[in-house]
Prior knowledge:
Elements: H1 5-20, H2 28-45, H3 66-70, H4 114-122, H5 135-148, E1 160-162, E2 175-177, H6 205-208, H7 212-218, H8 253-276, H9 282-309, H10 313-324, H11 328-335, H12 342-345, H13 363-368, E3 378-382, E4 389-394, H14 403-409, H15 412-421, H16 434-437, E5 439-440, E6 446-447, H17 449-459, H18 465-471, H19 480-483, H20 487-496, H21 506-512, H22 523-538, H23 549-552, H24 554-562, H25 565-572, H26 577-580, H27 593-597
Antiparallel strand pairs: 1-2, 3-4, 5-6
Amino acid sequence: MKQSLSSRVFTGITEAVDRVVGWDKLPKPLGIVTLVGIRDKLRAENLYDSGRGPLDRPLPATSVDRFALISRTVDGTYNDLNSPLMGSLGSRFGRNVPLSHVFPDERHMLDPNPRLISRRLLTRDTFHPATTLNLLAAAWIQFEVHDWFSHGKNQPTDPWQIPLEADDPWPERPMKIARTMRDPSADPNGPPTFVTADTHWWDASQVYGDDPGFCQLLRSGQKGRLRVDEHGFYPPDVDQHLDLSGVAGNFWIGLGLLHSLFMLEHNAICDMLADRYPIMSDDDIYRKARLINAALIAKIHTVDWTPAIIAHPTTVLALRANWWGLLGERVDRRFGRLSRWDVLRGIPGSPTNHHGVPYSLTEEFVAVYRMHPLIPDDFTFRSLRDDRVLQTHTLPEVGALEVRKRLDEMAMSDILYSFGRSNPGAITLHNYPRFLQNFNRPDGTLIDLAAIDILRSRERGVPRYNEFRRLFHLRPPRSFDELTSNAQWATELREIYHGDIERVDVTIGMYGERLPRGFGFSDTAFRIFILMASRRLKSDRFFTVDYRPEIYTQPGIDWVEGNSMRTVLLRHYPQLERALRGVANPFAPWTSIGAAAS
């Protein structure tokens, strides 16, 4: 996107201030101005189109039908009415760095060895908690990631062959890691391209599905409602339709909680719409409820989850401003949205803007959301009534094949309370879940997810850490001691990367770097977030020009604007009120019932 002279001057000043002082060290008003300038520069210089992808299938209709105009489609088509395939199933991932920088370094694809990095730099010797968060925060980001991006099943042939050290207990030599499935229409002389197995839109597809048959299987056929069991979870007959060799194999009880919660929320929205509009059809109620539920999930991520995990005072204000604008929620409630400028009035209802590049999620965005250290290896479940320990389990014991058993053994309110009382892991080196380094997937395959995390960024052409920072207008560290404040880590990094700071992988650098005050992940990752968090809203017409009563209904808009993670939890589990009493953010640690009673 070409910038005007005034924009270039503004972004140049804010970039200089950020480099010299740091946005996080400025007074809040100046910090906000600096972040706006950083975002403008990123919008101008860090959006790259990798092409449409192999979408050789025809559009669902020769002309857009009324349902596609007023509701989300299953496959993500017709979000942009001028480019109906934009962001739909099968679209390519875009890039945040120039395409000339995304060719994989074939010479060093396995150097340093990804398994060596997993064992020496990532293995969790002692659990390091993120004490400002609760375990729902860890479950939430995986819940969201399953909506945003998937590369689909891996390539079935020609896996990567990973040499192993003599003392490595891995049962197969060499370790084999399947390659990412390539784009079938890729340019053989161009950079690698990959396509999404989800839509790129923020459309709650993790709840509703992106296959018409699966979507229909979930529906009750009555007043738009979804079919749920006694736990509010998918009915058991759905299990046979889940492919455990794919993303469904990553399921665990944390995802079960959130899937259940937002299936129940969908049904509550349906009941509200059926009461307000008794002549509305089952199909219309379902479509409206999905729109409303998806928008509420996006709002919760924007104003609840993200301020919890990056709790610097400046970013808390900035992220809430993505939804409410700098004028804030109180002004909106009293006077409505007073401006079309989204900095002041928030993105919802503002004009759609792709900033000169067709919308897609990006490979760099995928890379920064590798946050597996959030997941513990061990879980303690407590009683909501008196805080006593009910059960303890390891991660495999709450995995995909065990979720229904755990839900049958414990009340959903007890499980939610237990997650609210527990901390996730800190996103750092030496804190990767042990069970994910030796992960027996439900389909019978054994993988080291930590080694895969490293290899995936390399094979998809994501630049290594120092080059990544340069391309995002950040100063790269000149030494390992400058990268991290932990002297032992610096020594380990120097040894593993043969003394060459330029070869440090982006995930490893982000896990090791110093964090801004209140941050649960790195400032390097935050640069992608500044850009892409607002882009996911700003490019989607259902969050911009079509975020209006004519599309959502007025009660639907009111539902989104008036609800939060707290109200969703309490609507379906009012008995949680004591545990949430005095808790400012539902993704922060909850109050123990013993403490609440005293």
